[in-house]
Amino acid sequence: VVHAPLTRSRCYNNLPGEHVALYYSQRASKGGLLIAESTGVSETAQGYPNTPGIWTKEQVEAWKPVVEAVHRKGGVFFCQIWHVGRASTYDYQPSGQAPISCTDKQITPEVLEDGTVEEFSAPRRLTEDENPHIVNDFRLAARNCIEAGFDGVEIHCAFGYLIEQFMKDSVNDRTDKYGGSMENRCRFALEVIKAAIDEIGADRVGVRLSPYSNCLDCWDSDPDALGLYMIHAMNKLGVLYCSMVEPEGVKVDGKVQIPYKLLHFRKAFAGTFIVAGGYNREEGNKAVSEGYTDLVAYGKWFLANPDLPKRFELNAPLNKYDRSTFYTPDPVVGYTDYPFLDLSSV
Ligand SMILES: Cc1cc2nc3c(=O)[nH]c(=O)nc-3n(C[C@H](O)[C@H](O)[C@H](O)COP(=O)(O)O)c2cc1C
């Protein structure tokens, strides 16, 4: 039962505070793997309110007590490191510059469920010479994660953020060695993964992929080939784990069905395989017992149930999650105030 990476937009000034330590320690248990929310690798990596960073000394120091709190309870803690690329606006960028990406194509503005329009600024295409500097930011961020005490890092190569912008052919329109063929489109991702491995060791580096996702205008015409290409390359590098996201499921009788589309990836990957996307206790147990995956990452259920592994063990009822507080800035409400199971009542 893995805690999936969950952005909660409560790290004011990009710093995780005491409430963040409380949130993660509530969810820590002996031997349980927690993956921390997307954490920026540099000044240009940010695009959403109150998300943490790990590129400054101050940020590393701020993470230390959070990691300690998880370790005190025997948990294993990885930090997900990301760069949002073109999913940003001038407001988030140093000196109001354009966000950077593999392209200069802007993300199409999207009307969200609540009627607000999500609009990102027009990006600036990175030059071939600049790419190694961004790779280096990931390398330093991986080093900083270890300095902060994390057991490892998860490189965010999913959901339409910078690395995936390079990987997928709906976005990547480059004609240099970072665009065109599958090999070229995956080059940036693999350079980042290799840099992190060279810096902190392959046994501390996991990777998140979502070949089937189409978030932020980012999709691929051949997701199976893309996923397998990455997996074969990750095998050569000795990547510790691959965390993969199921494609979006269709609703049957009001319940979203898990597509179970990841088996060929699992079979091809030499390391530990993690799946995520709509799992509950029963489906997670089934997926593990049938050899579909090694581990299951839970997002929304773990967010709402600090003692999720215990509840699963006891087959106890779960707290419902409240979507309205997923990304609100309150340090308590919808964050650390989800109740624990009253064990005396079980
Ligand atoms: C509030 C929220 C924040 C999320 N933040 C991240 C994130 O920072 N990084 C990431 O890779 N996925 C993120 N996700 C996706 C989850 O990790 C997970 O894949 C998704 O919620 C599906 O799993 P679930 O059905 O168990 O919730 C987020 C999801 C939610 C609901």
TrEMBL record:
Domain named NADH:flavin oxidoreductase/NADH oxidase N-terminal is located at 1-318
| UniProt record, GO biological process | jasmonic acid biosynthetic process; oxylipin biosynthetic process
Originating species:
Setaria italica (Foxtail millet)
Protein name in the entry: NADH:flavin oxidoreductase/NADH oxidase N-terminal domain-containing protein
Q: Tell me the cofactors it needs.
A: FMN
> Entry's PANTHER family?
12-OXOPHYTODIENOATE REDUCTASE 8-RELATED (PTHR22893:SF109), NADH OXIDOREDUCTASE-RELATED (PTHR22893)
The family annotation for this protein states: Belongs to the NADH:flavin oxidoreductase/NADH oxidase family.
Family matches, as SUPFAM superfamilies: FMN-linked oxidoreductases
| KW Cell cycle (keyword) present | no
